[in-house]
């Protein structure tokens, strides 16, 4: 199939140039929920271009939900957490779509913003970075100990006092991320990396600390990308896809409750089905009581060989 597509790349580009997208309807009314969906289309890589692949995924010029235009939607997360609330950003997409690159870039921007004086008030910052292994054992690996040190449902928190210190800790943590080779990516992350920043309000009488979660989800894969995988790798991929499905169900349930607060008792949210959603209970449990904002960032590969995976990613976030 890939050979067929590559052999017709020139015809594909000609058809793209002739394509006229239909006019967009009127903008939808702003949602009453605290869930935002945005998209980042990563650039084509040099090896993709040299192999004859061409772009097949294009943003609309006026699309408000595309990363770049959606910076205004992402920026309020940090001030929201700074004021004692809970903010969460997920990066979702197929293996090799640029999730880790995007999350790392956002971490650097946040590290600058936390200490540049633009946010009012005095705060203490405490950070935890750990990975959740997608398996029945559900172990959390502590980055700041040894590579073999694993504890169940426990992670150590570090206090940081400057941008430099925070960036050094983030960079150090990234060296411990577990990667494996897959059909789509030689260094695919097969775990969820969770960066938790607890923002402590040092003013007297303040009870709740703000929390900002940055979650780099494990890459989703379709059957075509698993054709040469070992039995263990196939099992691992199925577990990842199942966990992502549970996350989707939980966020959809949360959105329904936000839209109809009086119907809370009638909506079942299956957060206990996945270790990830158990860990992020604030996101999926309506009785938790904290004000939350959530951003789901869909990362996609623009190559025409990956249009199927791109559609799957966009369908996933479209349901939110």
Uncertain ranges:
67-73, 136-154
**N-to-C CA distance:** 32 Å
Shape: globular
What sequence of helices (H) and strands (E) makes up the elements? HHEHHHEHEEEEHEEEEHHHEH
Portion of residues in beta strands equals: 15-25%
Counting helices, strands and paired strands, the structural category is: alpha/beta
Q: Provide the residue-averaged pLDDT.
A: 78
The value of Rg in angstroms is: 20 Å
Helical content band: 25-40%
By oligomeric state, this entry counts as single chain
Q: Largest sheet, if any?
A: 9 strands, mixed
Tally of DSSP β-strands: 11
Q: Supply the number of helical segments.
A: 11
Please render the helix and strand layout as text.
Blueprint lengths: L1 H6 L1 H10 L16 E7 L4 H5 L20 H4 L2 H6 L3 E7 L6 H17 L7 E11 L6 E3 L7 E2 L6 E3 L2 H12 L4 E2 L7 E2 L1 E11 L8 E7 L14 H29 L15 H5 L1 H4 L7 E9 L6 H12 L2
Parallel strand pairs: 1-11, 2-10, 2-11
Antiparallel strand pairs: 3-4, 3-6, 3-9, 4-5, 7-8, 9-10
Helix pairs in contact: 6-7
Question: What does this protein structure show overall?
Answer:
With 320 residues, this protein is α/β, with parallel strands linked by helices. It is built from eleven helices and eleven strands. It has helices at residues 2-7, 9-18, 46-50, 71-74, 77-82, 99-115, 163-174, 231-259, 275-279, 281-284, 307-318; strands spanning 35-41, 86-92, 123-133, 140-142, 150-151, 158-160, 179-180, 188-189, 191-201, 210-216, 292-300. The strands form two sheets. Strands 1, 2, 3, 4, 5, 6, 9, 10 and 11 form a nine-stranded mixed beta sheet that branches. Strands 7-8 form a two-stranded antiparallel ribbon. Mean pLDDT is 78; it is low at 67-73 and 136-154.
């Amino acid at each position: 199939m890939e050979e067929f597509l590559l052999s017709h790349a020139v015809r594909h580009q000609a058809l793209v140039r002739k394509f006229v997208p239909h006019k967009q309807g009127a903008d939808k009314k702003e949602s009453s929920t605290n869930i935002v969906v945005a998209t980042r289309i990563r650039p084509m890589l040099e090896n993709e271009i040299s192999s004859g692949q061409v772009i097949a995924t294009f943003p609309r010029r006026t699309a408000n939900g595309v990363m770049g235009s959606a910076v205004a939607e992402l920026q309020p997360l940090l001030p929201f957490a700074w004021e004692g609330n809970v903010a969460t950003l997920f990066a979702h997409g197929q293996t090799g779509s640029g999730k880790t690159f995007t999350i790392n870039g956002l971490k650097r921007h946040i590290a600058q913003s936390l200490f540049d004086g633009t946010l009012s008030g005095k705060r203490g910052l405490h950070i935890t970075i750990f990975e959740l292994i997608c398996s029945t054992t559900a172990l959390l690996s502590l980055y700041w100990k040894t590579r073999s040190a694993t504890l169940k449902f426990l992670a150590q928190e570090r206090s940081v006092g400057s941008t430099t210190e925070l960036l050094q800790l983030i960079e150090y943590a990234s060296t411990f991320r577990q990667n494996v080779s897959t059909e789509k990516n030689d260094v695919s992350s097969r775990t969820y990396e969770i960066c938790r920043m607890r923002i402590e309000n040092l003013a007297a009488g303040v009870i709740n600390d703000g929390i900002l979660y940055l979650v780099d989800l494990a890459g989703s894969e379709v059957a075509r990308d698993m054709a040469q995988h070992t039995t263990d790798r196939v099992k691992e991929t199925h577990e990842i896809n199942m966990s992502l499905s549970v996350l989707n169900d939980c966020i959809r349930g949360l959105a329904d409750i936000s839209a109809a607060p009086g119907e809370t008792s009638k909506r079942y949210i299956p957060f206990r089905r996945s270790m990830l959603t158990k860990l992020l209970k604030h996101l999926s449990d309506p009785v938790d009581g904290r004000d939350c904002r959530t951003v789901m960032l869909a990362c996609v590969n623009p190559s025409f060989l990956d249009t199927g995976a791109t559609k799957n990613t966009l369908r996933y976030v479209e349901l939110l």
